[in-house]
């Protein structure tokens, strides 16, 4: 299996995606931003469609559109949390419409839309892996730099404000990191199902862990398990990799819920 270049590229890309998704996903879960993750995946579809329309790689288009939308959400919602969902919905609707338009006028066949929405293991080249590696390292580096403030703002926002943390700035930076993570991870699981890797591993890990760092580590293990096993099963069955990743992560989450239920009954 690993004798094939496209499978080696897929495993390298999948490993990068799993690590970045679990790190960012931990804070997505803590900040209750699962809805935003789903919205960015839809916006990523529009960006990829735009990239195809003007002759760019889909990843470049996704990065452009998700970054712009993240800044818009951060600026328009500001400090008013109650306004965030309305802003996200408005921006999401606009970009989905643009995605359909760009894909339509680009005159590409249905396989392009399928690859954007559900990912394509075969379509990952060495250059794609190199670009994903650069973006992944950039995301992780920024997280390390702002880790203390991001952790405080995500898990204890009131205490963070008392200690002088600029919550609005942290929020915009995090949204940009999330946008980059969505664009990177969509190469494997597609724009529609990216929220699987950005929410389920971290959501599962929180039932077993009591510190932020341990959540990140265990979430990474869960994400790697889903991606690696999913790629293997996809190779031997010729079924969509995304299907297996979704099933594995959902199964892990189900086990986490069962474990939490047993723990609560025993207390």
CATH superfamily: ABC transporter involved in vitamin B12 uptake, BtuC
End-to-end CA span: 47 Å
Low-confidence segments, given as residue ranges, are none
* CATH classification, class level: Mainly Alpha
Overview of the structural elements:
By secondary structure, the protein is mostly helical. The protein has one domain (5-191): Orthogonal Bundle (ABC transporter involved in vitamin B12 uptake, BtuC). The protein is 82% helix and 0% strand. The protein contains eleven helices and no strands. It has helices spanning 5-30, 34-54, 58-77, 84-105, 110-118, 126-155, 157-162, 167-189, 195-205, 212-237, 241-266. α1 runs antiparallel to α8. The longest helix has 30 residues, at 126-155. The protein is globular and about 55 Å long. The N and C termini lie far apart (47 Å). The mean pLDDT is 86.
Structure described in brief:
With 267 residues, this protein is mainly alpha-helical. 82% of the residues lie in helices and 0% in strands. The protein has helices at residues 5-30, 34-54, 58-77, 84-105, 110-118, 126-155, 157-162, 167-189, 195-205, 212-237, 241-266.
Give the arrangement of secondary structure elements:
Blueprint lengths: L4 H26 L3 H21 L3 H20 L6 H22 L4 H9 L7 H30 L1 H6 L4 H23 L5 H11 L6 H26 L3 H26 L1
Protein traits:
single chain, 267 residues, mainly alpha, ABC transporter involved in vitamin B12 uptake, BtuC, 11 helices
């Amino acid at each position: 299996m690993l004798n094939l270049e496209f499978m080696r590229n897929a495993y390298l890309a999948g490993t990068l995606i799993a690590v970045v998704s679990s790190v960012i996903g931990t804070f997505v879960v803590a900040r209750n931003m699962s809805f935003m993750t789903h919205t960015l995946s839809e916006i990523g579809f529009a960006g990829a469609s735009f990239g195809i329309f003007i002759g760019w790689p889909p990843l470049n288009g996704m990065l452009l559109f998700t970054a712009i939308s993240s800044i818009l959400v951060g600026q328009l919602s500001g400090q008013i949390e109650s306004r965030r969902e309305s802003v996200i919905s408005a921006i999401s609707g606009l970009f989905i419409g643009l995605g359909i338009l760009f894909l339509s006028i680009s005159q590409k066949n249905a396989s392009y839309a399928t690859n954007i929405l559900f990912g394509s293991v075969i379509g990952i080249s060495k250059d794609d892996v190199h670009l994903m590696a650069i973006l992944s390292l950039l995301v992780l580096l920024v997280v390390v730099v702002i880790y203390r403030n991001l952790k405080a703002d995500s898990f204890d926002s009131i205490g963070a404000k008392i200690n002088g943390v600029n919550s609005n700035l942290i929020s915009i930076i995090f949204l940009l990191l999330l946008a980059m993570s969505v664009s990177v991870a969509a190469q494997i699981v597609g724009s529609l199902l990216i929220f699987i890797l950005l929410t389920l591993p971290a959501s599962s890990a929180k039932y077993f862990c009591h510190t932020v760092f341990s959540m990140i580590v265990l979430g990474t293990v869960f994400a790697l398990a889903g991606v690696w096993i999913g790629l293997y099963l996809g190779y031997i069955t010729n079924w969509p990799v995304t299907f297996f990743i979704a099933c594995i992560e959902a199964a892990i989450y189900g086990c986490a819920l069962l474990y939490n239920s047993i723990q609560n009954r025993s207390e």
